[in-house]
Hints:
25% strand; alpha+beta; globular; homodimer; 768 residues; five-stranded antiparallel β-sheet; ten-stranded antiparallel β-sheet
Amino acid sequence: MNQDYIKADAWSIIEEGFDKEQVKSSESLFSIGNGAMGQRANFEERYSGDTFQGSYIAGVYYPDKTRVGWWKNGYPEYFAKVLNAPNWIGIDVVVNGTALDLNSCTEISDFRRELNMKEGWYSRTFRATLPNGIAVQVAVTRFLSLEIDEIGAIAFEVTPLNDDVEVVFEPYLDSGIKNHDTNWDDQFWNTTKVTSIGAQAFIAAHTMKTNFDTCTFMESKVYYNGRHTDTPSEKTTKDTYVSHRYTQKVSQGGTVALHKFGGYTVSRNHGTGDLIEAAQEALQKATELGFESLLELQRNAWATIWEMSDITISGDVKAQQGIRFNIFQLNQTYLGTDSRLNIGPKGFTGEKYGGSTYWDTEAYCIPFYMATKDQKVARNLLQYRYNHLQKAIENAEKLGFSNGAALYPMVTMNGEECHNEWEITFEEIHRNGAIAFAIYNYYRFTGDYSYISEMGLEVLIGIARFWQQRATFSKDKDQYVILGVTGPNEYENNVNNNWYTNYTAKWCISYALEQLQKVKEEYAQDHARIVTKTGITDSETALMKEVADNMYFPRSKEHDVFLQQDGFLDKELITVADLDKTQRPINQKWSWDRILRSPYIKQADVLQGFYFFEDHFTVEDLEKHFDFYEPFTVHESSLSPCVHSIQAAKLDRMDQAYEFYLRTSRLDLDDYNKEVEEGLHITSMAGTWMSIVEGFGGMRIVDDMLSFAPKIPEQWESYSFKVNFRDQIVKVMVENQEASFTLEGTRPLTILLHGKPLHLNPEEVSTL
Amino acid sequence: MNQDYIKADAWSIIEEGFDKEQVKSSESLFSIGNGAMGQRANFEERYSGDTFQGSYIAGVYYPDKTRVGWWKNGYPEYFAKVLNAPNWIGIDVVVNGTALDLNSCTEISDFRRELNMKEGWYSRTFRATLPNGIAVQVAVTRFLSLEIDEIGAIAFEVTPLNDDVEVVFEPYLDSGIKNHDTNWDDQFWNTTKVTSIGAQAFIAAHTMKTNFDTCTFMESKVYYNGRHTDTPSEKTTKDTYVSHRYTQKVSQGGTVALHKFGGYTVSRNHGTGDLIEAAQEALQKATELGFESLLELQRNAWATIWEMSDITISGDVKAQQGIRFNIFQLNQTYLGTDSRLNIGPKGFTGEKYGGSTYWDTEAYCIPFYMATKDQKVARNLLQYRYNHLQKAIENAEKLGFSNGAALYPMVTMNGEECHNEWEITFEEIHRNGAIAFAIYNYYRFTGDYSYISEMGLEVLIGIARFWQQRATFSKDKDQYVILGVTGPNEYENNVNNNWYTNYTAKWCISYALEQLQKVKEEYAQDHARIVTKTGITDSETALMKEVADNMYFPRSKEHDVFLQQDGFLDKELITVADLDKTQRPINQKWSWDRILRSPYIKQADVLQGFYFFEDHFTVEDLEKHFDFYEPFTVHESSLSPCVHSIQAAKLDRMDQAYEFYLRTSRLDLDDYNKEVEEGLHITSMAGTWMSIVEGFGGMRIVDDMLSFAPKIPEQWESYSFKVNFRDQIVKVMVENQEASFTLEGTRPLTILLHGKPLHLNPEEVSTL
């Protein structure tokens, strides 16, 4: 691993000592967010060293003009990107005329960062000697409020240690911000108003092209030794900048503090309402409460989240820290209250991947949100795709499909495709399968069929139409084939008959036809509406059935396994264990063609199918496929170890399962992929949760019942987690080889434990 | 076809009437070049309408920073591009204070362009009424001298028709030029000196990064009614511009003429010598001769070229014009005197494709140059690759190959790869085969083995090493396979076992091993040198042989043909004839994935192999493969029709052969691909020549003898061509169904005619 400087701690992420080389990594690791906005852990005061500034507003994006080397027909004109938003956290700090800048201080000691996940705040403390010889003690605490999600708060304290001094705080707003990853160096923001009203300041800016209106705002108060001072500020206004300058004499050992409240109001949430007025309201609420009371509300809000979603692990503090970090970041990124939002691969911690929605949401994130939140949250995530159905149909039309066939985009912000690599954009079409699977998975878990009859069936029909049209009848094979695809393993491009894709396609069609039948029988009114809207006919469903019933699956007789794709056995099948270690990771060491013709697998592909459709196969089948494919898997995708951990646990290979678990849970904390400075891997964090709950805990839905088959890695004394199952909460505690269950609810519930029924009564501890 | 405005004429390209919509197309079609430089047919005077300015210097390129959407390991950092060079042709023309600008004239009549291919000059004449009411007659003649290849000459004549006027000529040089296709809007030129010395002006500029020094220069003389006037000019000098302004009173009906000589001197040709001095020398030669004498030398030089390379066709003026246009452009682009130069796909007529060297040179151009020039020219083209061998080895190393394996670049200026599409750059590796084939082809035609023993064998070894390492042993097939390639048909990417690639690979290895053996036996000294230099061992050649002997070739029993690649028969095999015409051309109508999974073939792929290795297969084999593949071929590459024309002729399908011939020979003149304004398709023009000589003429080398099997399309009365065979010239005349042969040489020569020997004596006409 690249970096390993985070202190092991059950509830906090802690860095001790200042290392300029770690600044960008720590900016990622100590990121904070509240679902509505988020930011990297940039310093408030100026920092002249190497840094990656980032502040982001949920759902506010910019369609950056596509940049490609060689244009292919069908490419989208734009790539919707998460926007680096105006900066509201900035505070210039000047002591006796010299700026506080950790890059120029002559001495820094006791530097410590803490991200307190239990309470939802981030702090930084240090002692520093400025170039002018003044030594100061600095303590900063910052959080983004869950209570008022347009508000963030900063308490910035300075204590001079070796002299009486004059401290200047100059909090500011700055909308002269560019994305690091702009394709053409375009300006994304147009600032229309910069103003100060009393102690408050506002910058109105809208995004170019998308015209999201935003108001970035701040209000600050100065305290000297804990008492509010009324000193007026000097105000400076520029084109994209406003600051309020507070000057305070501070005696040696005395403490001056600036409390800065800031954040964003956005037209997405306020319609045509006045965003400055909305900002004033938010500021009024925040300042009336004050920093401490707002922080207390923050602690309470996080306590509520943890009450439901915490996973405890005893006997292994690094594993404990890992899973909490994952759960914490998922909750910082997405809280499920807004069906227009989704979960970007980097959340609010960086720009990579454009910050948009991938199939990660359906394949990895929905189970976490389904089991740890109200089921409305998962439904909101499903509805997000329903809302984009028309765009998915248009996307398929661009690629030559017709009659309502829907291809969901690989990457999107608003339903439009915005990726532009032909082998991904046009060919990694299995994403459609994950979107259909999530509908099935949601109903399986929640028992809520209303989503299918009201919305989901239309999505399923669009997807089934796509697969029917996308399959080709091979006269040679006398079966349907699917040519030219990229499977989940992106280390293969443009292959024929990727087993996972073919299997998923067949399943999607069958499932859609079953639901069409069920809705016809049980929800006649919905059926009539959907038939009218989609124009689906019996002859079309017959065509679909023909494809599903006659789908070709590549298979090796010799190895008795399904083949990842046609021709897989032509490869030189040298396992990863026999691969020279200097060649790893292959995505950094090898040219693309070499990767493609190698047998190496980036992430579960056939095994992803065995994960989704587990009950279609025997354990012996799974074992055979695991033994065949895992040895070729390099796990160079963050989404790989979790699925393998779950399957290794199922196969009772607990050491391997544990190793995969650590790799997924501490991927960012230990920076396995040497790229944490670009931001965190948010979506794979949901896979970490699955590794424990579905892997070690063995949670499944079997015959409409919650089912467990708990196992425990020998490194752990015990672990526990909770699952919200149909509005009742089941707490699972696994200790040694025993599992006990507590039902928090009002109705008795029968679950399965290792296949046997176990009756749970409310508030009782049950075990077999 | 898109445009069809060029008048049919046996020797000239003629446009009549001014149409703003055609300006850019005509700028391509009327391009002139002399091997050392070339330029689009831009107007000398200012033109405010839509135009694509282009002037190019052979071998002067710029490594533009690569632009891609998604970086892949192994991509080159730079794409070497032909440079749009400083403009020396510009002449501002002002009549009574109003600029002559065809875009603003109130009336234009008698507009006519002629590109006189026989004599190598380009002229433009028209009458125009300026916005100030003055009507003028204008006649311009321009050529790039073959005699002094650093010199171009322009005679620009103005005759006022309705008043006495004052004409201002302001010839200028301008180095403030950018490429249209710059990736990052970079400046490619750095101008270091702008100066006037007497009647001459010079701009010294060097290219950024590559540091090619150039001097762009001019000298002008004014004539009034044929008499030289001594009026001094007013000089203007700016950062990247210099002009000389001549003012002349002209009576109604009188003619004022400006003779402008200009061009480039380049450090490539003058080393560290003073380029301004070199320019002065060139100008002195040119002005001493004067416009008319220089033009007379031009006529003579072109007469010499035509004497050898002309093809006559009687009874079909469009076919005649087509072939001469192709031969003319090839000679304008490359004259074969400099082994550092090569033939870019657009020659000097545009920027597309970067202007670099592709496999087109070996696959299509070498036969033309071999048969119409001294054999040194073809040898120079081969030596170009020998000179780049070390770079090809480095290129292969970047992709993970070792031990001297060589992968020649897909696109290059200096031997380094500069393309950046993984499916082409890394996978269209069959280019290596064409480079080896050209060595074989050169020896077969010229009988000059010295290239192989002196240089070629090293190239062959590097290529054979590449194929041996690139092949993979498939346990499943118990044969060697080649995975992940793009064949000549670029409408398939990343396929396994492209038959053409596998066949070529096998042949390359076998041929290299045979030559190694032959050199060992017959050129012991060369053998020793090469073994030492390359380190080739018996164990390595055994490995190579193992691969060649056990190569896998995909084949269909049902259709009794080789398959283009594994899985080809899974496609929906609807022929082009049955494809909805609104879907053509598919490369404009379909998304890339749809093209890839279709059966449609961009250009000969299996059939390219049947072309190269014709004598490995029977005519029945060819027919079977032609009948199987041609119906799926959309010919959307300029390189496609020629090969099909040759094979159709061989199969006695003369109508089809003729149709393909017209398509290849008039591709640009009739703008089949609707893109002629971007420049001409230079390399495919050599294919046109092949269609006649190898297709209709049936020229081959059989048992070391020149062999013909002439056929004639029914649309033609007769045709003739000449072939330079081993320093003697064979003139072939085909009339009706008879062919006659004239030997221009000193030694009798036996050729084969339809497989039977025919003895030719010098200067006699022979027939069977």
